[in-house]
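Predict the 3D structure for this chain.
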Amino acid sequence: MQNYALSLLFTLLGLFSAVVQAAQVADKDFHPQVATPAFSKGSGPVVAVDAAHANFHTCEGRYIAFCELLGNDGYRVKTNNDPFSMENLNTIDLLVIANALNKKNIDPKQNWATPILPAFTEKETQNLVNWVKSGGALLVIADHMPFPGAVSDLGLKFGVNWGNSYAFAADTQIVEAAKKNTLSVIKGPDANMMTFDLKGFNSTGVRAYPHPIFHGRNPTENVPFITTFTGSAFTLLPGSQVNPLMGLGEGTLLMFPLKSQEQSLMTPRGPGAGTLQGGVLEFGKGRVAIMGEASMFSAQIADYISPGFKMGMNNTEHASHNVQFALNLTHWLTKINN
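Done. Predicted structure below.
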């Protein structure tokens, strides 16, 4: 990996480890605006954000800004508190699942340990597949370990093999810490951000792939790049119909810890090159988006990075196009003008 000017030291590999996760709180001072709403207030499709599966991101918590954004675009946003039955799903136009977990994997210290169990029952998974085939829209978001492991069964249904990993940018340096057999991440002030640029691979080792989602409905909605904050990665199964949006290249790194806070020199790892952090597909009459990072759709403050690092759509310096990307992705999923 490339060695850039580095200034911050984070002990333990998990940049977003248990202590860190607890220090990520919603930025309630950030209120995303929509210049040209797709619908008049409260007249658009119904968007349900899941909260029935021990979700780490919900409208009442870390996704408050995301839900506010879609509401400002005219969508009718609500919280889903029920299992995924066909009766329930048929009242929804777009379902958003962000960082779901099996209740048996809930850990108050957030040091999630394997085995990571499926977040959904087999019946729920099949209902989701059937619902999308019949015309439903689904946005599945799974951040770093343990969240990919909780939705990997669902991912297989849509043609992806979701690794229960942490994804690191090419300009991140990992070294042995002072504590025996543990790791540290030394990184500049960008806190392992990966910038997916339509111009091609950059210093973070990632790129975006052309898709109408990046163009929006008109030139004012064009998205030249998007930024993520760690997350996970997945590969495509043979014959997969997923269209890549966000790809990892040379120098990126994946790590597969058994517990989120217990990474060591023996933690399994491998290159990220050839994996994806985002993709979309048309599935029957419906559409699916698969995203390997959750903070990009949030607006959070990470107070473990002084003086309070803005993580997500509120980071207007590094993630200035994430708001528009969230809108464009939602428009594509709900078939607005494309």
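Residues 1-22 have pLDDT under 50 and may be disordered.
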